[in-house]
């Protein structure tokens, strides 16, 4: 590329635009693009004042802060540092005595369909009692507690209870192996592990406590004094005398009142390990004040939350989305939310739609991987198509976790949202704490596959490798130019890795997100083109993986999912290898060759001959993290014919690697 060596060629053209629904605009918190621009201008004119105002309005401070942003030790930024507050107090106590007190906080639907509701008042009592139980076990402010729990009310209560006493939690997804759990317990130096005897997923009873035992037996976890076990099912599990305690025993006799432990705004509320799509997971450390501010503000802006909403974020509490938009944001904002224990395909792939109808969900927030799998399911079985349920309660849809392919976006928009609900395609990361680039439902005209524009106060840009801003239309590296309150504070125990990973010297002190992006020439909208690690270089053209994948998925009669990687090639520098999941049984021999050819020509027609995959492989699935993200780094090894020697602790489906290694 003549203009810049680091420009990423962008070929995907998306002309469809959907203006916001006027009924939504009329009553939105941020109503219309002028209102959005006014907020951006406010942040530009007085950056610290912008954040200070919102921190005072949205949070209850035990001791008010006097300094907004402390930049004295960049990139270790501090926000509201001399202020004191408690996250659990902000999520629960402050609603008492308001109309929210008797409002339903959580509608819980268990795997088997049983429904439980708790009000804010009841939740406060449960959290307080749990907090007292932890205290009685000697857990105190500053201690780390690992939570390895199913997606249940108790999981959220455990997190809130830690926050209440100033203990820093680290939630580990209940699908992780003993080894992955052990590594996280050790890295965090946890004094206690909170778990359940078993969890219920898809009608199956799966062990949790047994895996904790295995993890602790692996060694290196000497800091752990107690394992608190919630009895989810009646099956027996091993209990180690002196170390293990049943939750019901620990709760017995404890008061349902527990004064919150007020902490400094920078006190680490939690550590959460990233999903490991690109390498070894990092222990991302978040603050209390700045984090909670953004969790609440984005609930109000991105989801335009109203008192009457029934909010449903399907993410597990093991992921950042389940922290910010299940355990903290909705509660801080006083919302009613749905929590679901099970999986979207049990008892059948209509479960999500059935639950939306049943609980009259108004805001629904899920991941592209779930959407793609439900499209595939309803294409093969009409009985699980969303049209079979009444989804008229919905007013806003959201997407998170990966770029959403335009064709999956269109299906979600049409068949789930009835062409009435905007889709907020929220770009953010474990490290950012909350949404960064996203449409606002009552303001932003939508373009399928684009996360559109940064939120007010977020100074996102696309730069080359020296940190110079790229013109619109040219892809580059996504950065954030100024700090923001909910940003990562450090990598737990590894401040050097924090500096190197996120604030590399060449980038002028900007925050490096690790994703490639391009802004559209007409609107300046951001579109994520893939991870920087995944950029392809074919005959000198640098391309993001996302566009080729989206072109493949746009062949809607054939393709359910696709992942694209590069392989060294003598002729072109790198050759494109595509791994494809079809909407039909795995093809063999001639049939496979013929479909591969058809897809190659399709891509050439959709985005250009340069993007034609040289090699196409078929599989029944793609290697994914347990949060459902495609692990392209493993596919790169397969494409090169290498053995996999990398960290696969977060891989969901190891057997799929063998299938994909076969050439057609
Ligand atoms: P690791 O950092 O260990 O590789 P990870 O990046 O998958 O794991 P997360 O923090 O859960 O861990 O995911 C953040 C990433 O997910 C973003 O950097 C981006 O690549 C992707 N992502 C999230 N939301 C969107 C979105 N709306 N559009 C495009 N990409 C998204
Ligand atoms: Mg990441």
Automatic annotation (TrEMBL):
Its EC number is 6.2.1.1. HAMAP family: Ac_CoA_synth. Its cofactor is Mg(2+). Residues 36-91 form the Acetyl-coenzyme A synthetase N-terminal domain. PANTHER family: ACETYL-COENZYME A SYNTHETASE (PTHR24095), ACETYL-COENZYME A SYNTHETASE 1 (PTHR24095:SF14). Residues 102-484 form the AMP-dependent synthetase/ligase domain. Catalyzes the conversion of acetate into acetyl-CoA (AcCoA), an essential intermediate at the junction of anabolic and catabolic pathways. AcsA undergoes a two-step reaction. In the first half reaction, AcsA combines acetate with ATP to form acetyl-adenylate (AcAMP) intermediate. In the second half reaction, it can then transfer the acetyl group from AcAMP to the sulfhydryl group of CoA, forming the product AcCoA. Belongs to the ATP-dependent AMP-binding enzyme family. ATP binds at residues 401-403, 425-430, 515, 531, 542. GO terms for cellular component: cytosol. One of its GO terms (molecular function) is metal ion binding. It catalyses: acetate + ATP + CoA = acetyl-CoA + AMP + diphosphate. It comes from Tepidimonas thermarum. Mg(2+) binds at residues 553, 559. Acetylated. Deacetylation by the SIR2-homolog deacetylase activates the enzyme. CoA binds at residues 201-204, 321, 539. This is Acetyl-coenzyme A synthetase. Keywords: Acetylation, ATP-binding, Ligase, Magnesium, Metal-binding, Nucleotide-binding. Residues 547-629 form the AMP-binding enzyme C-terminal domain. GO terms for biological process: acetyl-CoA biosynthetic process from acetate. InterPro entries: Ac_CoA_lig (IPR011904), ACAS_N (IPR032387), AMP-bd_C (IPR025110), AMP-bd_C_sf (IPR045851), AMP-binding_CS (IPR020845), AMP-dep_synth/lig_dom (IPR000873), ANL_N_sf (IPR042099). The lineage of its organism: Bacteria, Pseudomonadati, Pseudomonadota, Betaproteobacteria, Burkholderiales. The modification N6-acetyllysine is found at residue 629. It holds the Pfam family AMP-binding.
């Amino acid at each position: 590329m003549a203009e810049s060596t680091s420009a990423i060629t962008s070929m995907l053209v998306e002309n469809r635009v959907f203006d916001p629904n006027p009924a939504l605009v009329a009553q939105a918190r941020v109503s219309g693009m002028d209102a959005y621009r006014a907020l951006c201008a406010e942040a530009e004119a007085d950056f610290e004042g912008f954040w200070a105002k919102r921190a005072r309005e949205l949070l209850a401070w035990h001791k008010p802060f006097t300094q907004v942003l402390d930049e004295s030790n960049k990139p270790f930024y501090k926000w509201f540092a001399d202020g004191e507050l408690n996250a659990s107090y902000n999520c629960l106590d402050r609603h008492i005595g308001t109309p929210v007190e008797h409002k339903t906080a959580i509608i819980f639907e268990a795997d088997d369909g049983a429904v439980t509701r708790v009000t804010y008042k009841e939740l406060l009592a449960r959290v307080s009692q749990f907090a007292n139980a932890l205290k009685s076990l000697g857990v105190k402010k500053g201690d780390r507690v690992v939570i390895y729990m199913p997606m249940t009310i108790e999981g959220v209560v455990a997190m809130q209870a830690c926050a209440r006493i100033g203990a820093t939690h680290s939630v580990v997804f209940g699908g992780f192996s003993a080894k992955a759990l052990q590594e996280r317990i050790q890295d965090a130096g946890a004094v206690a592990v909170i778990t359940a005897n078993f969890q219920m997923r898809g009608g199956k009873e799966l062990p949790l406590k047994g895996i904790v035992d295995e993890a602790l037996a692996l060694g290196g976890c000497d800091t752990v004094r107690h394992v608190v076990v919630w009895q989810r099912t009646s099956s027996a599990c091993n209990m180690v005398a002196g170390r293990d305690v049943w939750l019901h025993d620990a709760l017995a006799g404890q008061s349902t009142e527990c004064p919150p432990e007020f902490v400094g705004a920078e006190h680490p509320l939690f550590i959460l390990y990233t999903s490991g799509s690109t390498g070894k997971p990092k222990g991302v450390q978040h603050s209390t004040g700045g984090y909670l501010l953004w969790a609440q503000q984005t609930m109000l802006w991105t989801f335009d939350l109203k008192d009457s909403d029934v909010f449903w974020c399907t993410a597990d509490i093991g992921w950042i989305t389940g922290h910010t938009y299940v355990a903290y944001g909705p509660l801080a904002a006083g919302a009613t939310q749905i929590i679901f224990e099970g999986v979207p395909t049990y008892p059948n792939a209509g479960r999500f739609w059935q639950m939306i109808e049943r609980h009259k969900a108004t805001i629904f927030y899920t991941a592209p991987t779930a959407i793609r799998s439900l499209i595939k399911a309803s294409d093969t079985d009409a009985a699980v198509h969303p049209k079979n349920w009444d989804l008229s309660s919905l007013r806003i849809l959201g997407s998170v976790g990966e770029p959403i392919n335009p064709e999956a976006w269109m299906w979600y928009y049409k068949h789930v949202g009835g062409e009435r609900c905007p889709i907020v395609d929220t770009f953010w990361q474990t490290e950012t704490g909350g949404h960064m680039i996203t449409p606002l439902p009552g303001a932003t005209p939508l373009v399928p596959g684009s996360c559109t524009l940064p939120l007010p106060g977020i100074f996102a840009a696309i730069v080359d490798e020296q940190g110079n801003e790229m013109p619109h239309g040219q892809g580059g590296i996504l950065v954030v130019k100024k700090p923001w309150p909910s940003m990562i504070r450090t990598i737990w125990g590894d401040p050097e890795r924090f500096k190197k990973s996120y604030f590399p010297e060449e980038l002028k002190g900007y925050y490096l997100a690790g994703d490639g992006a391009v802004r559209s020439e007409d609107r300046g909208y951001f579109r994520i083109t893939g991870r920087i690690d995944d950029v392809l270089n074919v005959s000198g053209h640098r391309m993001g993986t996302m566009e080729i994948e989206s072109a493949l998925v746009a062949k809607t009669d054939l393709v359910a999912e696709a992942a694209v990687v590069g392989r060294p090639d003598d002729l072109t520098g790198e050759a494109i290898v595509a791994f494809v999941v079809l909407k039909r049984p795995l093809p063999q021999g001639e049939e496979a060759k013929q479909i591969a050819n058809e897809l190659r020509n399709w891509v050439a027609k959709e985005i250009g001959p340069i993007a034609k995959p040289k090699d196409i492989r078929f599989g029944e699935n793609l290697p994914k993290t347990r949060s459902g993200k495609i692990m392209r780094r493993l596919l790169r090894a397969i494409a090169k014919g290498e053995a996999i020697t990398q960290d696969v602790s977060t891989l969901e489906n190891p057997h799929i690697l063998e299938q994909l290694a076969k050439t057609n």
